[in-house]
Amino acid sequence: MSSDTLVHLVAGGAGGTAGAIVTCPLEVVKTRLQSSVATFDDVRPKRASPTSTLTDRSTPTKDSAPRGLFRNLKLVRCLKYIVETEGPRGLFKGLAPTVFGVAPSRAIYFSFYSTSKAFFNDRLPPNSPLVHICSAGTAGISACTVTNPVWFVKTRLQLDQRKDGSLSALEVAKKIYRTSGVLGFYKGISASYFGVSETIIHFCIYETIKSKILADHVRPGVLEDRSTKDFVRFMGAAACSKTIASTLAYPHEVARTRLRQEGTKYRSFWQTLSVVAKEEGYRGLYRGLTAHLIRQIPNTAVTMCVYESVVYLLMRSRVDHEAAE
C-alpha cells in the first residue's frame, strides 16, 4: 500500500467516524420512518373511521396513512418519542456497528476513490466528470460489497423498539446466520449498488465546486497552504452536493431498509419499489427524506471537512519531514 493511499484511508476513517457519532440519533429516526414495521404510535396522525371516509374523502384512510405520516411526523417529536419509550440510549441504537462499519467503509471508499482517480486520470481526460464518475462508482461498489453485513446488522438493531435495549449486535448476527446463512447478510445489497448513483452524483458535484474553490491558489504538484476558510467552503460544497444527490436517489434508501427488515414481503429491489409505490403511493418512496437530509447534510459536511483536514495535515507533515531531511 502506497503512502498516499494510507493517508486517504486514515483520513476517510476519521471523517466517517466523526460524522456517524454526531448524527446517530437522526439515523435512528430516518431508518424507522423508512421501515414498515417500526412505529411512532404517539405521533402518528389519527386514522379516520370507515364512516367518516364516506363523507370526507380528504381524511386519511388506512391505505393512505403512510402519506399522512410522511407529511405530519415531526423530527423533534420522533426523537422525544424514542427517549420517552426507550430511554436516551434508544437514540444511539446501532451506534456500535455504525462506528465499527463506518470507519472501514469510509476508509475503503476514500482509499479506493483516490487510487481509482489516479488510475483514470492517466487514461481519461484528467479531473473530468468521467474520471469522477468512474472513481466514485468503483469506490462505492467496493465499499458496499465489503461492509454490507455490518449495515444489515445496524438496520435490524435500529428497528428494535424494546425499551431495555437488550438486543446486541452479536445476537442479531447469530439470528441472521441461523435463518439465512452467510448470504442473509447481503440481503438488500442490490439497493446499495443502485445507491452508488447517489455517491457518483455527490462526488461529481463536490469535485466541481472544490476545483473552483481552489482554482485561484493551486499549482500542479505543489501542496499549497489551506486556510480555515477553505475547509468551511469544503463543508458547504459537501452539503450542497449531498443534498442534491440524496434527493435524486432517495428511493433506494427506502428499498434497502425494507429489504433488511424481517419478513418475506420484500424480495428484490425493483419488486420492493413497486410494492411501496402501489400500497403507499409514490410519496411512500420518500418516507423519512426530511430526517435523512437533516442527518446527511451535517454528516457529509463533517465527514468531508475532517477528511480534507486530515489529508492536508498528513501530507503537510510528510512534506515538512522530507524538507527537514
UniProtKB/TrEMBL annotation:
The keyword Transport applies. It is found in: Mitochondrion inner membrane. It comes from the Eukaryota. InterPro entries: MCP (IPR002067), MCP_dom_sf (IPR023395), MCP_transmembrane (IPR018108), SLC25A33/36-like (IPR049562). Coiled coil: none annotated. Residues 42-65 are annotated as: Disordered. This is SLC25A36. It comes from Ramazzottius varieornatus (Water bear). The gene is RvY_07021.
